[in-house]
Amino acid sequence: MRVTADVDSIISLSNELTSQLVVPPSVAAGVCPRCRTWNDSDSNADCENCCEISARLGCPAVPLSVVSLYCKPSPLRDWLTCYKGRIDDSEPFIESYVPNVRALLGRFIIEHGRAIGALSDGLDGLVVVPSTDRPGPHPLEEIIRSLDIDIPVLPILRRGHGDLGFRKPSRDGYEVTVTGHTGQRLVVVDDVYTTGARINSAAYALVQAGCTLGAAIVVARRVNPGYSEAAQEFWNGQRAKTFDWAASPVVSEGNHE
Ligand SMILES: [Zn+2]
Fold it and tell me: How far is the CA of 38 from the centre of ligand 1 (A)?
């Protein structure tokens, strides 16, 4: 997967934003290998939330590829919320944040797009996880189209009947609307990850439709340092690390079996 748009300006802006990024963890004791947050054990077992996803969907949570961690409040959180605003107007749309989100995802693909493609021995398309409540194309989809990547952006998912919410993935949260993609190798992308209900439900729908998941990418994975002492310690440790575009983002296979 390759970016063919204005690579130099994407690199330059992403460099300016780097000070706001927090290194996601490598797989280690105390880290969930799927969603890359702390887990409550001394092993590298799946966290409680990923176990819940697995129980509800009947298949393991996707191992995530992650650009950065974030917490609330933070500039990164604001960029990722207000580049689209909220449909109920509780958060404004701030147009100047759109290039920031574009630079973060664009730079990730510039640095790691080749590795992502290699995970599934090539990619046939990219699917953005549709919004839970916003009609029409997701604002992230427009951003990705503007990067002129060398694989098609496929609008083949829509919200299904299943309820989706905080810690609530659903087998029919999304449905595939277009036939003919069976057997294709896809990468699924979302802006933020909190409990994984959306991206895991989207991945489930695609795999059920016969697609192969090459990777599941999120720009930022939320951490709540106030949740526990272990969470705070995890956050402090990651924040103390220096973010490096080549070495810091996590690239994981998207296997969803
Ligand atoms: Zn997890």
Answer: 8
